[in-house]
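Chain A, query sequence.
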Amino acid sequence: MRAFIAVQIKPSDYLANVFRIFGSIKGIKVTEYGNVHLTIKFLGDIDDGKASEICRGISGIEASSFYLETEGIGAFPSLARPRVIYVECRSDGLYRLLAEVGKFVPIEKDFIPHITIGRVKHKIAMPDIEFKKEKYSVDEVCLFKSELKPSGPIYTRICCKHLENIDKNEGV
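Chain A, predicted structure.
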């Protein structure tokens, strides 16, 4: 199965509108509302045994829930030549969660926390969007199965760990 570890994000009305703006641009395939997430680790194709091993790792995570703050719009490889458009994110709590996940799968050293808005199919003009920073509560981390379909990916939760004890005063 094609799989990844992620935290799911429920977009605010504002963020959903940002997705709609990008979705109105010809040549961008926007992430569907129900699929919005921040990938912690893309695993690629794994077998059931590896999935079970990762689920054991997820169940052993010792991390609290946290707030994820959106910072602005970014793109890979660059805003001048976007192939993937995303919302930049930051959070101390996310880095603590990454350290926990890193105990059972390797995490890339150049990890850039982001929520994918969409994939660019050909050259586009980036819209000028006045970005509003927001905070999102994160209280669960999951292993997802990803099935690629012509209509778009279908994500299925394989296992999850609820993160307890949110600190509402936590710095991001």
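Residues 66 and 93 are 5 Å apart (CA to CA). The first helix runs from residue 13 to 23.
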